[in-house]
Amino acid sequence: MADLENKIKIEGPQSPLTYAALTTHGDQPTESTTFMDMLEEVECKKCKDLKEKLKAAEAANKFPEPSEDVLNFMESVLSIYRPRSVMAAQQGRKRLLSGYDVYIPNVMWNNIESSSGQSGRRLLRNLIRAVFTESELAESAGLGLRKQTVGSKSPLDPKKVQCLKLFVNNYCEKNKWVIPSVTEVNKVFADAVGRARSIQKHT
């Protein structure tokens, strides 16, 4: 940037900024070439280089896995350009974690938060009931920790399970609640499945 600034000269109070030379880019600007004109040209070259790199990556089918910051940026962009119908459907809902499509109505979240009593296990139990239906719980194999046989039930959605585990862990750590152990987390899920099966059996 310092080299670029050194190549700029001001000819007078009413004259536009011009380049004396642009040997870095191999261009020879005319006297009427303005600073903004040259910036646009430089940016266009950068865009072309980037497009060529993307095409090469696409041809080789080798795209690097985006970082969390990139995913968050993409989400913020999508929130601006997402169709209004989709945005309207998500209004009034809380997204538990970025990168997971797990939402809870704000009213329900407020009840969950206030009724958890600073207990990580109770928070997880309430979230399980909010995220999974009784049918999903009753007809599942829970976390799938036990040995499964052919034709047996499938475990709960692993992405939702992972989201709940991470959210509870982060929430407890942030609010200085006791973080439930792995054994306690597994038992909470097992109890939720057992409860749902019992309700389904008696209905």
Helices and strands, in order, run as HEEHHHEEHHHHH
Top CATH class of the largest domain: Mainly Alpha
Total individual domains: 2
- Based on helices, strands and strand pairing, what is the structural class? mainly alpha
Terminal CA distance reads 73 Å
Q: What is the radius of gyration computed over CA atoms, rounded to a whole number of angstroms?
A: 28 Å
| Rounded mean pLDDT score | 75
**Spatial strand sequence of the major β-sheet:** 1-2
| CATH fold annotation of the largest domain | Arc Repressor Mutant, subunit A
Q: How many strand elements? A: 4
* Beta-strand content bin: under 5%
Major pleated sheet: 2 strands, antiparallel
Number of helices: 9
| Shape category | elongated
Q: Please tell me the CATH architecture of the largest domain by its name.
A: Orthogonal Bundle
Give the proportion of residues in helices.
55-70%
Low-confidence stretches: 4-27
Spell out the CATH superfamily of the largest domain.
BEN domain
